[in-house]
Write a structure and sequence with these properties.
Helix content: 55-70%
Structural class: mainly alpha
Largest sheet: 2 strands, parallel
Order of helices and strands: EEHHH
Shape: rod-shaped
Distance between the termini: 76 Å
């Protein structure tokens, strides 16, 4: 869909998440079915009896162009999650560093007190 062109895709589990058969592409199970579908899509394509805007291919192209683009979908769904995970990870790293530094400082104070008292 990145090129705003309908797709012809071999049918497999979960494909319906991307391809809505007949709306933004076509799904097929084998070469014969694909051939029939392509023949139907291109029938009248270069014929003056049907305007380009009336064909199934053009209808699917309009549907694809109205779909949410990849970047928009990414920003809506994944970007915030990944950003939150990174921010949390950086904050956890800062906390570990602080604890480590506090531990080193505490150890140095104990050694100094021991040396003074000892």
């Amino acid at each position: 869909f990145g090129c705003t062109v309908p797709v012809c895709a071999i049918r497999f589990d979960c494909l319906e998440e991307l391809v809505v058969d007949g709306k933004n592409g076509i799904m097929f199970d084998g070469s014969e079915e694909l051939g029939d579908q392509l023949f139907d899509l291109f029938t009248g394509f270069n014929d003056h009896t049907q305007s380009k805007e009336e064909g199934k291919l053009e209808e699917m192209r309009r549907n694809v162009m109205s779909m949410e683009r990849w970047r928009e979908h990414w920003n809506k769904c994944a970007s915030g999650l990944i950003h939150s995970a990174c921010v949390n990870s950086v904050e956890q790293q800062r906390q570990r560093t602080k604890w480590r530094n506090d531990g080193v400082m505490f150890g140095a104070v104990v050694i100094m007190v021991g040396a003074i008292l000892g």
